[in-house]
């Protein structure tokens, strides 16, 4: 997703704006997680930045460094587009397998430096935790409009605090209180779905949170609607506790052996070793493949050949991986939790099951894997129809309207 960093240049990148649009904007995106990190929030920030560059906007990104010593300002290729990335000195968070962070007490200092250099028309923070927190406060002092997008749930945080559970609750409450103070500085707060917006409003007391899909480019996927020659279950995502991948593995162990099901698990995370041990204990070692990170080409191939996409996560504010599966024409079996029901309509493009219920997940997987060809085709087409409203161009139109303080597209 990202090419080796090179020194910045002054040449203009990206396509011109469509006829009738206003002058290009200078947009500063603040992200606590960004390429080469692999997660939904990072992928959204990358696609947003690349999409804006392609429209002719001058995009700058504040993000953690790649390695502690590799900090500075670089021209980087993200999603095929060249942009300026301000890499801040960052440190590895030991309990996590890849997460890096900027020292919180330095965030305002770095924000002042970048704001002085970039002089943006608008700031768009992707997190209220460190980089976004400092950037929002410094931009607010200068009267620069701020848009905030929330990608965070409590379940995404507490696994890595290393604190006792009773202290986790205290930390989460303090974090949300501070998040509210950050969001109060903004022109608008967005989050990927209406359910996620309702969650954020209930958690923080904010009103008017705007649902804006993370969006995907449908042209990047090649749906194969033909019958499958084998039963393949696919999961894509971080291997962390809140994803409940153990539920998927236990459900797979309950499937009829005659179905000869195999499972492909794409992604890395702190739970990989535990999940591999569980796979052995369940007698699934020869049927489950842990791929780790894959190239975009290999991932598209896995989507195209899978029979069903399965996700048991309880902490999805949208789930880009589920949208990618739908854009690939896959039926989906998903936990009935947070934003997944926004994507998976029970009985239409797949099925929902009670979170954590292994038997019900196994039953719903069986429903898909044993469906008649015409029923499977109906679910595949429903996935394509339902995901079409998440086109990335609509997402970009919405954010550009927010940046310009104009009416949102209908």
From TrEMBL:
Keywords: Glycosyltransferase, Transferase
Keyword Cell inner membrane in record: no
Molecular function terms from GO: glycosyltransferase activity
Domain Glycosyltransferase subfamily 4-like N-terminal residue range list: 38-218
Region entry Disordered, spans: 1-24
Annotated Glycosyl transferase family domain residues: 227-382
Domain of life: Bacteria
Sequence ranges of Low complexity compositional bias: 1-15
InterPro entries hit by this protein: Glyco_trans_1, Glyco_trans_4-like_N, Glycosyltransferase_grp1
Entry protein name: D-inositol 3-phosphate glycosyltransferase
Organism from which the protein derives: Microbacterium candidum
């Amino acid at each position: 997703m990202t090419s080796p960093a090179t020194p910045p240049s002054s040449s203009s990148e990206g396509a011109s704006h469509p006829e009738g649009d206003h002058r290009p904007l200078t947009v500063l995106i603040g992200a606590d997680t960004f390429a080469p990190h692999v997660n939904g929030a990072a992928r959204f920030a990358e696609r947003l930045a690349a999409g804006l560059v392609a429209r002719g906007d001058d995009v700058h990104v504040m993000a953690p460094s790649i390695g502690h010593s590799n900090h500075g300002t670089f021209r980087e290729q993200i999603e095929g587009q060249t942009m300026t990335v301000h890499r801040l000195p960052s440190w590895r968070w030991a309990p996590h397998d890849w997460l890096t962070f900027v020292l919180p007490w330095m965030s305002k200092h770095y924000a002042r430096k970048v704001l002085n250099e970039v002089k943006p028309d608008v700031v768009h923070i992707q997190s209220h935790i460190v980089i976004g927190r400092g950037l929002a406060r410094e931009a607010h002092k200068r009267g620069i409009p701020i848009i905030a997008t929330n990608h965070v749930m409590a379940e995404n945080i507490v696994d890595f605090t290393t604190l006792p559970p009773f202290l986790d609750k205290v930390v989460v409450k303090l974090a949300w209180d501070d998040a509210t103070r950050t969001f109060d500085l903004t022109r608008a707060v967005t989050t990927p779905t209406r359910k996620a917006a309702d969650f954020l409003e209930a958690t923080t007391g904010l009103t008017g949170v705007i649902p804006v899909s993370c969006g995907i480019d449908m042209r990047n996927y090649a749906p194969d609607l033909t019958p499958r020659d084998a039963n393949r279950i696919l999961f894509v995502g971080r291997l962390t506790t809140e994803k409940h991948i153990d539920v998927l593995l236990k459900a797979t162990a309950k499937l009829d052996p005659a179905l000869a099901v195999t499972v492909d698990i794409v992604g890395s995370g702190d739970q990989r070793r535990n999940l591999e041990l569980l796979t052995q204990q369940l007698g699934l070692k020869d049927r489950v493949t842990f791929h780790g990170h894959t190239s975009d080409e290999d991932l598209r191939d896995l989507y195209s050949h899978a029979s069903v996409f399965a996700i048991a996560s309880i902490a999805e504010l949208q789930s880009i991986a589920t949208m990618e599966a739908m854009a690939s024409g896959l039926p989906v079996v998903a936990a009935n939790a947070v934003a997944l029901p926004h994507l998976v309509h029970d009985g239409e493009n797949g099925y929902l099951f009670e979170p954590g219920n292994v038997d019900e997940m196994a039953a719903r997987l069986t429903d898909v894997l044993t469906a008649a060809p015409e029923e499977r085709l109906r679910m595949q087409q429903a996935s394509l129809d339902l995901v079409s409203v998440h086109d990335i161009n609509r997402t970009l139109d919405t954010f550009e309207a927010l940046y310009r303080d104009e009416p949102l597209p209908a």
